[in-house]
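Example for tutorial group B:
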């Protein structure tokens, strides 16, 4: 007798094996086709699955600082079509702001959604106020700031007009900057004035804020100031008896011609009355300015700051920052200067209670120095004529804080930076430096907002997608290759099991 275990398995004819393999391959192919059809259908229907943002760890220090220093209740109205391509990212961004504000014990953000296609009554009220569709409205007390979708997208975004309706092309959206713009809108609500006016001095060879040259213009930084709620106006001193009373900040950017004695007197009176001034110097700045700033505790040196930390050999990388509101959060960042003038904190013979407080904002490293011959390359330190480092390149002065518990007056604030070109359009074309943040920090401090900013560490991308950059890349890899491969593998196992 032959045991059952010793029985041989019936052999399958070769033609049958070919049929089984053909059936298995056909099943796999059908599974692949089904996977592709499902992916096409999901893309066609714009289907997506969304998870909540539990932790906003990538929000920039700028946003967190603004939220922490903003108190009270802020109402944010999202006037968006829920079917719009960017509705989900923007609603996620708003929820991220709300959670970040709670984490830093800042303002109480209340979010309200108005769909122009369904909430006809409320949409009509917003339209009557001339608020465009697809925009955000920030309200606190009696102040309102409106942010449009165009402002939250970079200039590379394009509009396509179909059937008299503006639609955003999915492939031409550009860079989303919602976090930066919305944080600026919240900061505008906290400005001490409803409309802060910046006067930009003109008539002495200063740079033009309305120069749109891609490399040498200053239109980008002017646009940033406008977005932050400032109105920029040109100012010429000849013929004036005083600086305009609505001048909240006076900017002097790179003067190349000397000012008359009467003009310096106007500036002095303006500062003594609690004025706010930002001065950007250059190697061509006349020496008369050095005499003027010496009265305020700032000594302007004819030397130029140089050092081994450089990108092109003709600039200097500054990463040493002082403990001041303007520079406090730039510890891990760097400002790129071209040929900054060296500055020093001067000693004043003033024993009054409101003696100016002089603070160094930025300086070179210890191996940098003040160069007396910046036109000769490569730079070499000359102990006889050069000043050893570290050398300061930016200084802030404040005079007159609180005289008593009951009497407070507006203190004078003055900021002098030894460089002008660090905020020209070419220098701001890349976000690899903190030039933009350093300049805006100085302006907001002069405006009376004692909160500093820092370069964003991916906040926009995190709030829009709900995940970090690495998580987003991993998700794309899984969606593009992992899921289809898994489905094909399951079809393969099923076909093998069924046929063998």
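The residue assignment follows.
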């Amino acid at each position: 007798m032959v045991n059952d275990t010793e029985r041989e398995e019936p052999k399958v004819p070769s033609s049958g094996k070919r049929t089984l393999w053909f059936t298995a391959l056909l099943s796999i192919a059908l599974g692949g086709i089904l996977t592709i059809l499902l992916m096409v259908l999901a893309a066609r229907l714009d289907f997506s699955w969304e998870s909540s943002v539990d932790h906003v760890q990538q929000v920039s220090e700028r946003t967190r600082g603004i939220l922490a220093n903003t108190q009270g209740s802020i109402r944010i109205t999202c006037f968006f079509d829920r079917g719009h391509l960017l509705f989900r990212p923007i609603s996620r961004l708003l929820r991220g702001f709300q959670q970040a504000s709670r984490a830093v014990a800042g303002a109480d953000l209340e979010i309200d959604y108005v769909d122009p296609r369904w909430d006809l009554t409320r949409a009509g009220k917003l339209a009557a106020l001339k608020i465009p569709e697809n925009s955000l409205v920030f309200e606190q007390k009696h102040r309102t700031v409106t942010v449009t979708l165009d402002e939250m997208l970079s200039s590379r975004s394009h509009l396509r007009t179909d059937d008299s309706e503006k639609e955003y092309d999915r492939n031409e959206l550009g860079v989303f900057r919602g976090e930066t713009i919305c944080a600026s809108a919240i900061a505008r609500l906290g400005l001490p004035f409803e409309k802060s006016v910046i006067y930009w001095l003109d008539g002495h060879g200063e740079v033009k804020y309305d120069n749109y040259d891609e490399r040498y213009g200053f239109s980008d930084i002017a646009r940033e100031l406008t977005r932050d709620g400032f109105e920029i106006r040109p100012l010429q001193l000849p013929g004036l008896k005083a600086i305009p009373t609505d001048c909240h900040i006076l900017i002097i950017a790179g003067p190349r011609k000397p000012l008359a004695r009467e003009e310096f007197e106007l500036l002095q009176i303006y500062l003594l009355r609690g004025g706010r001034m930002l001065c950007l110097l250059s190697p061509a700045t006349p020496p008369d300015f050095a005499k003027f700033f010496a009265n305020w505790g700032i000594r302007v040196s004819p030397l130029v700051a140089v050092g081994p930390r450089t990108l092109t050999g003709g600039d200097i990388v500054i990463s040493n920052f002082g403990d001041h509101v303007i520079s406090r959060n730039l510890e891990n960042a760097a400002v790129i200067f071209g040929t900054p003038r060296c500055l020093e904190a001067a000693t004043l013979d003033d024993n009054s209670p409101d003696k100016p407080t002089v603070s160094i904002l930025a300086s070179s490293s210890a191996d940098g120095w003040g160069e007396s011959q910046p036109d000769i390359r490569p730079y070499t330190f000359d102990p006889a004529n050069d000043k050893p480092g570290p050398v300061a390149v930016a200084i802030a002065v404040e005079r007159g804080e609180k005289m008593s518990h009951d009497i407070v007056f507006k203190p004078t604030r003055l900021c002098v930076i030894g460089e002008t070109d660090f905020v020209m359009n070419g220098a701001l074309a890349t976000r690899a430096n903190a030039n933009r943040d350093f300049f805006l920090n100085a302006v907001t401090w002069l405006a009376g907002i004692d909160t500093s900013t820092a370069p964003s560490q991916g906040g926009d991308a995190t709030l829009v997608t709900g995940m970090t950059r690495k998580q987003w890349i991993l998700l794309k890899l899984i969606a593009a290759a992992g899921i289809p491969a898994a489905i094909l593998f399951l079809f393969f196992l099923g076909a093998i099991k069924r046929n063998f």
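The first strand starts at residue 73 and ends at 79. Compare this with the pattern of hydrophobic and polar residues in the output above.
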